[in-house]
Amino acid sequence: MTDIENLAADVQAFTSNAFLVTGDRTVLVDTGANFDVVSRVDARSDGLDAVVLTHTHPDHVGNVDAVREAFGVETWGYDPGQPSVDRELGGTVRLGDDDFSVVHTPGHKNDHVCLYAPSTRVCFAGDLVFANGAFGRTDLEEGDRETLIRSIDRLRETVDPDLAALHTGHGPSVTTDAYATVERAGEAARMG
């Protein structure tokens, strides 16, 4: 059975969430930055099979080199032209025991993806949407509000209305009314 744990949950530093997904295939979704994620992975598993990146902003990839060195793993992302990406993500990727669809969702950053497992109704949303209907910044390089809105719409159309869990790039995961959270993010992005 797949288990998902945010290794950055109690970190008091500028970092993204870093989700350790264990099961058939042990994968770290985003490495975070500015904390020792390697020791946290070591304490919970016998190693890693891969790193999958939602996007390549520094707070999500700051620990990539340390993780690569410690575990001898490759990093998978949307744009293999980025230094932190070794392999290009395809249409699906296995995390734990489940196959996740790779959904390209630019607007926050051009190489941003969300990962969604229809079988378990679990989504890793990166910095596209957050708890309480918040949405990703568009004032950084490669950010674009209209593109972000289209990406939120694409995610809403992809995920099941009974979405069980939305694991976000920052803040708490959403396990109640997750689909409504995606809807609220789309509405909020359109308003402001």
Keywords:
alpha/beta, globular, 5-stranded mixed sheet, 6-stranded mixed sheet
Provide the gyration radius in Å: 15 Å
Our estimate of the beta-strand percent is 15-25%
CATH superfamily: Ribonuclease Z/Hydroxyacylglutathione hydrolase-like
Span of the ends, CA to CA: 41 Å
Average of the residue pLDDT scores: 97
DSSP summary, beta strand count: 11
Query: Count of helical segments?
Result: 5
How many domains, in number, for the residues?
Answer: 1
What is the CATH topology assignment?
Metallo-beta-lactamase, Chain A
Biggest sheet character = 6 strands, mixed
CATH architecture: 4-Layer Sandwich
**Percentage of residues in helical conformation:** 25-40%
Shape: globular
What is the element string, with H for helices and E for strands? EEEHEHHEEEEEEHEH
Structural class given helices, strands, pairing?
alpha/beta
Keywords: Hydrolase, Metal-binding, Zinc
InterPro entries: MBL_Glyoxalase_II, Metallo-B-lactamas, RibonucZ/Hydroxyglut_hydro
Cofactor: Zn(2+)
Protein name: MBL fold metallo-hydrolase
Structure report:
The protein has helices at residues 37-44, 58-61, 64-71, 145-158, 178-191; strands spanning 3-6, 19-22, 27-29, 50-52, 75-77, 87-88, 92-95, 98-104, 113-117, 122-126, 165-168. By secondary structure, the chain is of the alpha/beta class. Strands 1-2-3-4-5-6 form a 6-stranded mixed sheet. Strands 7-8-9-10-11 form a 5-stranded mixed sheet. Helix 4 packs antiparallel against helix 5 (178-191). The relative contact order is 0.14.
